[in-house]
Amino acid sequence: LDRAAHSSLTHLFWPLSGQQRGEAPYLEKTLMEGMTDQSAVSLVSLAKSWLEAPPLEAISDCRSPGYDSGQRAYIISATGPAPSFRIVASAEHTIVNLCFVVKNWNCEDAAQLQIDSKAEHAGPAFRQGIVRDPNGRPALVVWLQWQGTEPVTVTLRGAKPDLSARTPPSI
User: Fold this and answer.
1) Element (H or E) spanning 152, and its range?
2) Can you tell me the distance from the alpha carbon of 103 to that of 156, in angstroms, rounded to the nearest whole number?
3) Rounded to whole angstroms, how far apart are CA atoms 41 and 22?
4) Once rounded to an integer, what is the mean pLDDT over residues 84-107?
5) 54 Cβ contact partners less than 8 Å away, ≥ 6 residues apart
6) Which of 87, 105, 72 minimizes the C-alpha distance to 147?
7) Cα pseudo-dihedral 35, 41, 42, 47, rounded to 10
8) Is residue 132 predicted with pLDDT exceeding 70?
């Protein structure tokens, strides 16, 4: 029996992610595609978590432009040793797994994670690693298996941000 090996829904409308005018104009749109055996209703929370991601509020030792749908991650820049921030989830802005890219982590050390002041340990539901930006600087990437509709406070201890520059590295 033949089975579908490809699907395309790119003819549908989806929001503009970015654009540039001028000499090299472009429009950027982001679309999540995939195949599943789950019902459409079971995917509503996932869709909300991506299309209407909960806002991020910086608490201390960080700054952030928020959620990047192209990476499906929150982008954060460490400004101190323990970046702390709140993901303001709600019924309309759900959390279905979280990913953080922490720029200016500036070391190879793993993070010590706290969620709502409770320590979490590495395992299948908490993964992390170090990646290098185009200039060779280390950035921390954290993935959490987490679902919810309530705000959650995240603290990542262990950053050694470069604070010597007058202007912190761009987010």
Assistant:
1) strand 152-157
2) 12
3) 42
4) 95
5) 67, 87, 88, 89, 90, 93, 94, 95, 151
6) 87
7) 70
8) yes
Which tens digit of pLDDT belongs to each residue from 103-118?
999 999 999 999 999 9
Count Cβ atoms below 10 Å from residue 104 Cβ, excluding itself: 27
* Sheet arrangement for strand 112-115: 56-60, 84-87, 152-157, 112-115, 118-120
The average confidence (pLDDT) of the chain is 86
Cα-based torsion angle of the residue sequence 8, 14, 19, 23 in order, rounded to the nearest 10 degrees:
50
Question: What's the pLDDT at 146?
Answer: 92
pLDDT band at 5 (very low <50, low <70, confident <90, very high): low
Q: Where are the beta strands (DSSP E) in 30-148?
A: 56-60, 62-68, 73-78, 84-87, 95-103, 112-115, 118-120, 126-132, 138-148
Please list the alpha-helical segments (H only) found in 34-147: 44-51
Matching residue, tokens 């793993």: 110
Q: 14: pLDDT confidence band, cut at 50, 70 and 90?
A: low
The structure's pTM equals 0.81
